[in-house]
Write a structure and sequence with these properties.
The protein has 229 residues and is α+β, with helices and mostly antiparallel strands. It has nine helices and four strands; from the N terminus they run E-H-E-H-E-E-H-H-H-H-H-H-H. The structure holds glutathione. Glutathione binds next to loops.
Length: 229
């Protein structure tokens, strides 16, 4: 086994985030497809949250951990990957701010608008996971899609501007997290604004195959869904 063993699900953008990060980091890792395994006793003994991406790494106090942003922060800290996760406190504040805002505010809207179309499980208590009528579910999905515009605009004017999150020369873990998340917007009726399309291209161009290769799994999955509909 490599130094870092990643459990991942290829069609997921949460997983894509860490898959891109690991490739961009140059760290020694290998990947295992976790499809059908996340609720197994063996998996849950290591990862009680049954979530991917998850890594196994000997030096970690529990031997394994999950949460895409926490994984990237831990590995970047441990290996001094300053370009991907700046140690300068002010730049790091921008990166952390963006990642917390993404996971707390933007991602729930992305998941509520796209998961029903992806046939991914929706979260308990959400309209899509309830016994509500199809009309109500469709209206709730659309409300979430429409609500994405506001946090997206915050990313444009506060975090991204014309460059990368963290105000450096290249993409950080927050750019990886945002660009990967935006892959799923292709499932919505509202296209990404031009600035966001340009931004995603900028992140992908800077990361090269580290981004494009694993992104191919997500894009292939979305294309299959579109062909089938
Ligand atoms: N906030 C988490 C979300 C992780 C997550 O929702 N993982 C899903 C796939 S997208 C999963 O592994 N589900 C499997 C399960 O619950 O059994 C992150 O960013 O890593």
């Amino acid at each position: 086994m490599a130094d870092i063993h990643l459990h991942m699900l290829p069609p997921s953008v949460n997983n894509l985030t860490v898959r891109v990060f690991l490739r961009a980091s140059g760290l020694d890792f290998d990947e295992e497809n976790a499809w059908g395994k996340t609720r197994s006793d063996a998996f849950m003994a290591k990862i009680p949250a049954h979530l991917t991406p998850a890594i196994e790494v000997d030096s970690h106090p529990r031997g394994a951990m999950w949460e895409s942003c926490a994984i990237m922060m831990y590995l970047a800290n441990k290996h001094g990957l300053d370009g991907l996760y700046p140690s300068n406190p002010e730049k790091r504040a921008l990166v952390d701010n963006a990642n917390f805002y993404l996971t707390g505010t933007l991602y729930p809207l992305v998941s509520r608008s796209t998961y029903p179309r992806l046939s991914f499980p929706c979260y308990p208590g959400e309209v899509a996971a309830s016994a509500a009528s199809d009309d109500l579910k469709a209206a709730a999905r659309k409300d979430s899609e429409d609500a994405i515009a506001e946090p997206l605009e915050v990313f444009r004017k506060y975090f991204v501007r014309d460059g990368f999150i963290g105000d450096g020369e290249g993409p950080t873990i927050a750019d990886i997290r945002l660009a990967c998340t935006l892959e799923f917007i292709a499932m919505n009726d509202t296209p990404l604004p031009k600035w966001a399309q340009d931004y995603c291209k900028r992140v992908e161009a800077a990361l090269g195959a580290a981004y494009s290769e694993p992104a191919g799994d997500v894009r292939g999955f979305l294309a299959q869904l579109r062909d089938a509909s």
